[in-house]
Amino acid sequence: MKLFLDTANRELIKEWVKTGLIDGITTNPSLLSKEGPNTKAVLLDICNMVPGDVSIEVVKKEPEAVYKQAHQIASLASNVVVKIPFKKEYLPVIKRLVSDGISINATLIFSVIQALLVAKLGVKYISPFIGRWDDIDIDGLTLIEEIRQMLDNYGYESELLAASIRHMIHLHHSALLGADVATIPPNIFDKLMEHPLTVQGIEKFDSDWKKLGKEDLI
Ligand code: G3P
User: Fold this and answer.
1) 131 lines ligand 1 (CB under 6 A)
2) Domain for residue 62, yes or no?
């Protein structure tokens, strides 16, 4: 399973890349807006900081402008994936971009049917937003399960990217349900790093070892 970091903050990216766990980055206009007005410099830095895919979302609205902006975004670096939200008007744009050789992350996916349509167009990633379904009392993880089944039924090659992850349980079940990728906000990544029983276990081993009064093991 690939793990992406869901942030545009360069300090956090620098910190987490050191762990060796980060396979890529996902950004969106909300995340990018927190990093100040020099977005081109921010994005270029991010693309240089990680070896894997960096998803960058279009902000233009009109389909032809989205097409042109997608090309501009893709020309920033070789590891860029252009994020485009699901919209009927953008489907022909996605089709053109895929045939131009540009990698697309179809975002704001909330149904199996939306996922099916963009899979048919050959997008690289399909991003269902689990947490935002949970917010309105619908189990977002069901969407992961059903999109997985749909992709496997037809052998589509698009990768299933679990997004809008808000809790460890989202990651736990996304892994069991066969998501290819999960994008995780830094605060959730932090929580994954400590298990109380592991901490307790280390303390017990340490105190038992100290009883022997010996520093070296061998
Ligand atoms: O990857 C998508 C993510 O950034 C959205 O998360 O928590 O705003 O629904 P959230």
Assistant:
1) yes
2) yes
Q: Is residue 164 part of a domain?
A: yes
Q: Which sequence positions are flagged as catalytic?
A: 83
Average pLDDT, the chain: 97
Which of 63, 54, 117 is closest to 90 using CA atoms? 63
pLDDT tens sequence across 186-196: 999 999 998 99
Q: What is the DSSP string of 86-144?
A: --GGGHHHHHHHHHTT--EEEEEE-SHHHHHHHHHTT-SEEEEBHHHHHHTTS-HHHHH
CA nearest ligand 1 atom 5, residue: 164
Do the Cβ atoms of 55 and 24 come closer than 8 Å? yes
Look at ligand 1, atom 8, and give the residue with the nearest C-alpha. Answer: 164
d(CA 106, CA 142): 19
CA distances 47 to 16, 67, 68, 128, Å, are 14, 21, 20, 23
- Tell which one of 132, 170, 174, 181 to mutate to probe ligand 1, the residue whose CB is within 8 A of the most ligand atoms: 132
- Determine the straight-line distance between the first and last CA of the chain, rounded to whole angstroms: 37
Domain count, the chain: 1
Q: Which atom of ligand 1 is nearest to the CA of 166?
A: 7
Q: Is 217 part of a structural domain of the chain?
A: no
pTM: 0.95
